[in-house]
Amino acid sequence: MHRGKGMKFVGDSRVPAERKPNIPKDYSEYPGKTEAFWPNFLLKEWLVGAVFLVGFLCLTVAHQPPLERVADPTDTAYIPLPDWYFLFLYQLLKYSFAAGPYTIVGALVMPGLAFGALMLAPFIDRGPERRPSKRPLATGFMLLAVASIFYLTWESVDQTDWEAKEQMGAISDVEIDKAAEGYLIAEQNTCLSCHGGELGGASGPKLTQTGLTAEEIAEIAVNGQGAMPAGVFKGTEEELQIMSEFIANLE
């Protein structure tokens, strides 16, 4: 049998005869315009991400998180605040056009339109230019968004009573027995609305470790003191004594 007899050879132009190494194209003719995604661009992204990650890790080690006391659903005097990066949305809900019956406008409609526009930005502005001056619409909307976030955040920080906020959220070393009769009497007489559910203070001073006697506390509850008006306590003499002794023993 002769060599090659009965055999057919088929050629495929899609298969290269010689395999060449995967060498990125030469972009030297277009400096600053484009570059190879692998490894040039991806390596830069990884380096920038690593720098930010190390920075965040250093911050978490150097600064302890500002923890507050355990959440108390019965404390109606507590003013909750979001983290700093959501303060602009919190401030937005204070305006008349985004509050009350229009809360859904400030909570869903306006943020939804803003983030929706951000997602559609690559499809709206499809020009080849990369300079901000050559892309007025994209640049203008981005500057408007950044300015709005900065302004609303600043307004929220400026209008918040941080001293009262820290007082309301302070972690107290005094254990409060909320099932005690004295606590329930204080709750019935709306004492918690000013002094906090943990009695650690809110718009009014704290009622723990006051250093006052039960008689002095009863006198203040009936006749008031400072910004506290007289006649706030509406209970009986017996209830007043129980509540005063309860507060005096919060050491």
Automatic annotation (TrEMBL):
Positions annotated to bind heme c: C191, C194, H195
Annotated Gene Ontology cellular component terms: membrane
Compartments (UniProt record): Membrane
Keyword Electron transport applies: yes
Coarse class of the protein's main subcellular location: membrane
SUPFAM superfamilies in the record: a domain/subunit of cytochrome bc1 complex (Ubiquinol-cytochrome c reductase), Cytochrome c
Keyword hit for Iron: yes
Domain Cytochrome b/b6 C-terminal region profile: 27-154
Keyword entries, A-Z: Electron transport, Heme, Iron, Membrane, Metal-binding, Transmembrane, Transmembrane helix, Transport
GO molecular function annotations of the record: electron transfer activity; heme binding; iron ion binding; oxidoreductase activity
Membrane association type: Multi-pass membrane protein
Quaternary structure and partners: The main subunits of the menaquinol:cytochrome c complex are a Rieske-type iron-sulfur protein (QcrA), a cytochrome b (QcrB) and a cytochrome c (QcrC).
Task performed by this protein: Component of the menaquinol:cytochrome c reductase complex.
Family of this protein: Belongs to the cytochrome b family.
Protein name: Menaquinol:cytochrome c reductase cytochrome c subunit
Organism (species): Mesobacillus campisalis
